[in-house]
Amino acid sequence: MINKDVLTTDYTLHTDLITLTRECHGIYATDLLSAAIKSAGHQSALVTLISHDNTIACAMMIDCPLVIITSDRMVSQSMIDKANEENICLLSTHLHTHEVIRDLLVRGLI
Amino acid sequence: MVKEYQIIARNYDLAGRASSDIKRTLKAMNVPWSFQKRVCAASYEAEINIVIHSVGGYATFEITDQAIILDFYDDGPGIPNIELAMMEGYSTASELDHANGFGAGMGLPNMKRSSDLMNITSDHEGTHVHLVFYRGETHDQ
Q1: Strand arrangement of the beta sheet that strand A66-69 belongs to
Q2: From 2.60.40.10, 3.40.1190.10, 3.40.50.280, 3.30.565.10, which CATH number describes the B2-134 domain?
């Protein structure tokens, strides 16, 4: 899926528009960054409620083109800056992690 | 080539800086993604361990024709029981560490799984983790 396909009124884009053009191959949901590093596939989207600079550092480590922060967690400016630097698309949503997965599945994106 | 990075205890904002630089270097070298992932996974875990558990330390990153060699040194307080710490799920991390997405007890096991060779020594004066990744090996996860 292309990152822009994910965007609906349920999601807020924080990073530059160019980040929407990247493509994801699969999705990985976890609140443990070690689990993402261990198990996420190449160019998977990362869905997590951990909203921290380290989330972006972790995403960069595994070549993740899309990070979705769930459950209305605040996204800091430094996260946005880091994500833009790495050309990682950063979205946030009021949806919980399992609801994001269901949403993407229902829309046929995964 | 050898690079050295300072790692500051409890500084979550700078955590991952060394591993990010290692990742960029490997990517620029066009090494296969699976190899990049192995090195970076182990590096990130080792770096975070120093941030979370130690009073600070440093890392070195060496590239030779045969291997990538990572060494992580900290100044204590050391790991009381390495065998226990190597068990997946065992953790002494704090609530703050958990809130930041760390402390799952997967650090050392992930390093061992990701690397071709891992040596760890520890006493109250500090811990040294030595990791080797042989280039050209097919140790994909």
Answers
A1: A11-13, A89-93, A66-69, A45-48, A27-29
A2: 3.30.565.10
Interface contact flag, A31 B141, Cβ < 8 Å: no
What is the amino acid identity at position A99? E
Distance CA B104, CA B92 (A): 9
Note the pLDDT tens digit of each residue in B59-91.
999 999 999 999 999 998 999 999 999 998 888
Please answer yes or no on whether B41 and A55 come within 8 Å at the CB atom.
no
Q: What is the CATH number of the domain that holds A95?
A: 3.40.1390.20
CB contact under 8 A, A31 and B101: yes
In angstroms, what is the C-alpha Rg of chain B? 14
DSSP-derived letter for residue B30 is: T
User: pTM (2 decimals)?
Assistant: 0.88
Q: Report pLDDT for B138.
A: 54
Q: Using alpha carbons, list the distances in angstroms from residue A80 to A2, A52, B18.
A: 19, 10, 20
